């Protein structure tokens, strides 16, 4: 059986120091990214492929703002987009519809029953792109939840990682009972690990060693950061939900492990 090549996201690097300017954060890149992904929603249940590719390319810029440790994740996004574009460019007008693009691959006999997908193909690129986005949704939701609890006083500022971009004081546990590394591990276990083979899992294990104490601030204030995390998750959850529904309907949900 053919083995699919999947992507393993790389966690973000250390944030800026408290006194350093962060002009990139002032642009609210997560909110901009959410806007791009929102434009992908086509009709009641479809996805605009051309706009999806553009949104993913824009999201690579967001990953770059997080830091150089996201380079491998960015490369996987680029690889997945190339797989999608290969089929999309055969009929760019018709195949703006994700459903029509995937239906065309099925009709051409590219894939086998039981969700056995040919790689490379648009189906594989869309599948792994969806899984990669779901991974980040999981992490961002947890960051938002912890941030809201801290705002309401239900947990102390020391409990849980903060999307603040500020340096953590030395001494003791920098992020309390739940570290950012733990959030990344949980997100990986819930989304990508079930589909990653030994090589991808080993790559993730190495990447986990570089997870910073805090997630970098990508907005002028912590409140705006929480709003942007939530806005991004809201729209991307809609998007991946549509993608999953079509992929399941067309028997394109390949559950084999990557290398």
UniProtKB/TrEMBL annotation:
GO CC aspect terms: cytosol; membrane
InterPro entries: GLTP_sf (IPR036497), Glycolipid_transfer_prot_dom (IPR014830)
Glycolipid transfer protein domain residues: 47-213
One GO MF term: ceramide 1-phosphate binding
SUPFAM superfamilies for the chain: Glycolipid transfer protein, GLTP (SSF110004)
Superkingdom of the source species: Eukaryota
Positions of the UniProt region annotated as Disordered: 1-22, 150-178
Gene3D superfamilies assigned to the protein according to its UniProt record, in alphabetical order: Glycolipid transfer protein
Pfam family name, one: GLTP
Protein name: Glycolipid transfer protein domain-containing protein
Species this chain originates from: Emiliania huxleyi
